[in-house]
Specification:
By secondary structure, the protein is α+β, with helices and mostly antiparallel strands. The chain folds into 2 domains: 230 residues, Beta-clip-like, CATH 2.170.270.10; 115 residues. Helices cover 35% and strands 19% of the residues. The protein has 14 helices and 15 strands. The protein has an 8-stranded mixed beta sheet with strand order 2-1-3-4-5-9-11-10, sandwiched between helices. A 3-stranded antiparallel beta sheet has the order 8-14-13. Strands 6-7 form a two-stranded antiparallel ribbon. The N terminus is likely disordered. Keywords: Signal. This is SET domain-containing protein. It comes from Diaporthe helianthi. Pfam families: SET.
Length: 428
């Protein structure tokens, strides 16, 4: 396969080269602002529309050469309207694990200007293993390989953090169509170092596949996460190990994407005992059981058999009633008009309903609404109490929900100067 090197200067220059020329002989050991996924969409209580980039200084510049920043384009591209989509790779990214993008040259130029690609100090240390690993790979009946807790895990404990194997531009994801997307994905994965190719191809498809191309496509469709890069574009990304996390409608783990380092990090959402499978939710699970079943079957190709979906008929009926109540309560609390039916009592009920329903990965949403609601009627002590709970639970998700966390910190500092102070009373 031919490749063209992309050099980002004042002008993009393309010239043929060989991919093998830059590979090292040995690989190193190894709807608001800031959209939240899978945490829900909350009313953004701030006018600030920035997501600051935080960089850490832990890699020696001298360990990297100019070649580490070179991008390679496959020889096959596809056009959709005025945009041409290609498969691009940077094999030396992330200590030689590499990364692939399916996007346009214009979007790639913006991505390649991010510090994570231009400053070696900003690159994630994804290959460093903890002295006491939180999990191990295990065969899960009916699910393939999953991740299982290896030792007792604490609430909010970091479990793993990984950079993506491949990222697909949202426009390409939605408009290329299966055949053309499959071709570009196959080229993208094939141009990565062999070790990373193997990590990708060992992920589950949930379906029987007969060809290599089908496997590449189905793996992507069944394992991708939505990963927005603010100011550039939304992507769909597949990560090593992170994509091995199986779905549960009431999971015990939560995750966040940090666009400044292109890393997906996973945290325990509750205390987890050794031998328990680590799970996340693949979609908005504040839905009734029948709705969740439709999502899992049509969106991911499997019938959800998690403990919540497999409960007794009585338990499922009670859960569905709580879910419907939660949806109504959120609608009331998110209504800031003078005719809103919101009240602190409804905020308290929302928090209780989240806990009763086992929504531990999303409890910050209930705390957030309760803090806003109490402050809106001038109850500063209660507002600060819930704001502190929100920050305590949400800090590990900071990279995805920073505006909301900053909003809560402002309320904690002085509830009386916060924009929500007595706004319900003033609206009457």
């Amino acid at each position: 396969m031919r490749h063209s090197k992309l050099i980002f200067t004042a002008l993009i220059k393309l010239y043929p080269t060989a991919l093998g020329a830059i590979l090292p002989e040995t690989q190193p050991d190894a709807q608001a602002v800031c959209p939240v996924h899978p945490v829900g969409v909350w009313p953004l209580a701030t006018s600030k529309k920035t997501c600051p980039i935080d960089l850490t200084d832990f890699i020696d510049d001298e360990a990297f050469s100019d070649q580490d920043y070179q991008w390679y384009r496959s020889d096959k591209c596809h056009r959709v309207g005025s945009e041409e989509f290609c498969a691009f790779t940077q094999p030396s990214f992330n200590a030689g694990h590499g990364i692939a993008l399916v996007t346009t040259s214009g979007i790639l130029e913006k991505m390649a200007s991010l510090p994570v690609f231009t400053d070696p100090r900003a690159q994630p240390l994804a290959w460093i293993q903890s002295a006491s690993p939180a999990y191990q790979d295990e065969q899960i009946p009916g699910k393939g390989i999953g991740l299982v807790a290896k030792r007792p895990l604490r609430n909010n404990e970091g479990l793993l953090s990984r950079a993506p194997i491949v990222m697909v531009d949202d426009t390409a994801f939605k408009r290329l169509g299966r055949a053309r997307l499959t071709e570009l994905l196959t080229q993208a994965i094939g141009d990565l170092p062999e070790t990373y190719q193997g990590e990708y191809l060992n992920l589950t498809t949930h379906l029987h596949v007969e060809t290599h191309q089908e496997r590449v496509y189905e793996i992507f469709m069944r394992n991708d996460f939505v990963t927005p890069v603010e100011g550039i574009r939304e992507f769909h990304s597949v990560f090593p190990h992170v994509s091995r996390l199986n779905h549960a409608c009431r999971p015990n783990s939560k995750y966040t994407f940090d666009a400044s380092t292109l890393t997906q990090s996973v945290f325990a959402a509750t205390e987890i005992a050794p031998g328990v499978e680590l799970t996340v939710t693949y979609f908005d699970s504040i839905q009734t059981r029948s709705q969740r079943q439709l999502m899992s079957k049509h969106g991911w190709g499997f019938e959800c058999t998690c403990s919540h979906c497999s409960a007794t008929e009585e338990a499922i009926e009670q859960s569905d009633e709580r879910v419907e109540q939660i949806i109504i309560l959120q609608r009331h609390l998110d209504d800031y008009s003078a005719t809103s039916a919101a009240s602190p009592e409804k905020a308290e009920l929302l928090v209780k309903s989240f806990k009763d329903e086992g929504l531990v990965t999303r409890i910050v949403e209930a705390y957030y609404r309760a803090a806003i609601e109490y402050n809106s009627v001038g109850s500063a002590a209660e507002a600060v109490q819930f704001a502190k709970l929100c920050v305590e639970e949400g800090e590990v998700l900071e990279s995805s929900i920073r505006p909301f966390m900053n909003n809560m910190r402002e309320l904690i500092r002085d509830p009386t100067t916060h924009w929500t102070w007595k706004f319900r009373l003033n609206a009457e």
